[in-house]
Amino acid sequence: MRGIHPIKLAGSVTKSWTYFRHARWKGRRQCPRCGYRLLYYLRDERFGCKRCRYKFGEFTRTYLGEFYFSLDTLTHLLYLYALGVPAYRIRFYVPLSLATIERSFRIFRQSIYDESLQKLKELKKLSGEIEIDEALFGGHRKGSKRGWGAEGKTLVFGIYQRNGKVITFPVSDRKHDTLIPLIKLHTKKGSLYYTDDHTAYATLDLIGKHQIIAHGMEEYVRENTTHINGIEGFWSYAKTWLYHYRDVPRQYFHLYLKK
Ligand SMILES: [Zn+2]
């Protein structure tokens, strides 16, 4: 699912059918099992391979093949999903059960996550002025525990290139051995790193220039254009967006963040 916004697709079932079919086959339908191109047509709109006899549908072995309802319902669902409408409200607009909608959303997220991982592999290393920060998402507000180590929260690590991209990772902790390898992997040596005074970042001056922005220095920071506004702006955006999803089961959380 790449290259077109779901909102555009939702307008026309023919258009979405053509789009998805092309995304799947790139104009050349072939056996998904052995790659053979000579096929025969089955009565139920599926295909059979003339070499290995494998029978398959238009979207077998893709995420789309996991949906068992009509394509117009699916494009409608994608449209609502893209708008950020929560599942419990969508069930009034499409003829599907809440469980089916939630399952569909997990498939959407999984596909988005897979594609993000793919993009991450292709992504050039970030360089120049780089801001690094961590933020906590989710969890319940009940109880008195706050801040780092609070139960049920997900720790997310972000690397932000000024005027460029943000890469985020769910991480298990904020230790040196967790964060530094990610920085090394995704940024060019010799970059200028802006961080807070968290000790995990203490060795950053070994791989580039390191500027520490201490918390509580915002006034000073604003005057001198040396700030972590970029990534904090991103966090606050992400948190607003995630507000609707605060009861997300933990195992699916990373999928939301990759949207
Ligand atoms: Zn085959």
Please, could you describe this protein's structure?
The protein has 259 residues and is an alpha/beta fold. It has two domains: 116 residues, no CATH class; 130 residues, 2-Layer Sandwich (Nucleotidyltransferase, domain 5). Helix content is 36%, strand content 15%. The protein contains nine helices and eight strands. The strands form two sheets. It has a five-stranded mixed β-sheet, with helices on both faces. A three-stranded antiparallel β-sheet has the order 1-2-3, with no helix packed on it. About 8% of the residues have low confidence.
Uncertain segments are 217-227, 244-252
Q: Tally the structural domains.
A: 2
CATH superfamily of the largest domain: Ribonuclease H-like superfamily/Ribonuclease H
Q: Supply the CATH architecture of the largest domain.
A: 2-Layer Sandwich
β-strand amount: 15-25%
By secondary-structure content and strand pairing, the structural class works out as alpha/beta
Q: What is the H-and-E element order?
A: HHEEEHHHEEEHEEHHH
Strand order of the largest sheet: 6-5-4-7-8
The CATH topology of the largest domain is given as Nucleotidyltransferase, domain 5
Number of strands: 8
Largest sheet: 5 strands, mixed
CATH domain class name of the largest domain: Alpha Beta
Query: Taking all residues together, what is the mean pLDDT?
Result: 77
Oligomer: single chain
Secondary structure: helix percent: 25-40%
How large is the radius of gyration?
23 Å
